[in-house]
Write a structure and sequence with these properties.
By secondary structure, the protein is mainly β. The chain folds into 2 domains: 115 residues, Beta Barrel (OB fold (Dihydrolipoamide Acetyltransferase, E2P)), CATH 2.40.50; 28 residues, no CATH class. The protein has a 5-stranded mixed barrel. Keywords: Lipoprotein, Signal. This is Slp family lipoprotein. InterPro entries: OMP_Slp.
C-alpha cells in the first residue's frame, strides 16, 4: 500500500528540483516590473536581456530589456517585455562576457531613475543599485551525434524522432526575370 504513495512523492520532489532559484537570487522581493512606477529604495529581483554594458572607473552599468522571470528566476519568453532598466554594480564586468543578448537576473534596490534616449524617444529607466548580477549560461546546442538515442529514439526505430538528414528540402529554380 505504501508503493503508490511513493511515486507521487518522488514526482513532486523531482518537479520541485527543476524550479530551484539559484542561491544568490533567493529572497523576498517586490512584485513590480521595471515598466511600473516603483517606490525608491524598493528591493527588487528583475531580469532580462542585456542591451548594453557601460564600464566606468568604479562600476559597471547594464542596460537591460526586462523579461518576466520564470519559477527559477531566469528571464522567460523573448516576445514579452516588462520595460527597460539600468543595473549598476561596483567593479569591472567584462563586456566581452556580459555581451548584448545574454540573459541576466539582478537583485538590489531601486535608487532613482535616469533619462536616456531609445532611438529618438526619451525613456526613463529605473536604476537598480545591484547586489547580485547573475549571468545565466547560454543554452547548449543540440548535438544529435552525441545523443545516445540517435537515431533510434527511446523506444526503438522511430523515423519521426530524429530525422537523421532533416526534412526534405526542395529547391525550385525560377528563371523569371533572367535572360539566357
Amino acid at each position: 500500500m505504501r508503493f503508490p504513495l511513493v511515486l507521487p512523492a518522488l514526482a513532486l520532489t523531482a518537479l520541485a528540483g527543476c524550479a530551484t532559484v539559484p542561491k544568490p537570487l533567493q529572497g523576498d522581493y517586490a512584485a513590480t516590473l521595471p515598466s511600473q512606477e516603483g517606490a525608491a529604495a524598493q528591493k527588487v529581483r528583475w531580469g532580462g536581456e542585456i542591451i548594453r554594458v557601460d564600464t566606468e572607473a568604479q562600476r559597471t552599468c547594464f542596460e537591460v530589456l526586462a523579461r518576466p522571470l520564470d519559477s527559477s528566476s531566469r528571464p522567460g519568453r523573448r516576445d514579452e517585455s516588462g520595460g527597460r532598466f539600468l543595473a549598476c554594480r561596483a567593479g569591472f564586468y567584462d563586456p566581452a562576457v556580459f555581451e548584448p543578448g545574454r540573459e541576466i537576473t539582478v537583485t538590489g534596490r531601486i535608487d532613482g531613475s535616469e533619462l536616456r534616449k531609445v532611438g529618438e524617444y526619451d525613456y526613463r529607466y529605473p536604476r537598480v543599485a545591484a547586489d547580485v548580477i547573475y549571468l545565466w549560461r547560454e543554452p547548449a546546442a543540440y548535438d544529435r551525434y552525441a545523443d545516445p538515442w540517435y537515431p533510434y529514439g527511446p523506444f526503438g526505430w522511430d523515423p519521426f524522432w530524429s530525422r537523421p538528414f532533416g526534412p526534405p528540402v526542395y529547391i525550385i529554380h525560377s528563371h523569371r526575370g533572367h535572360r539566357h
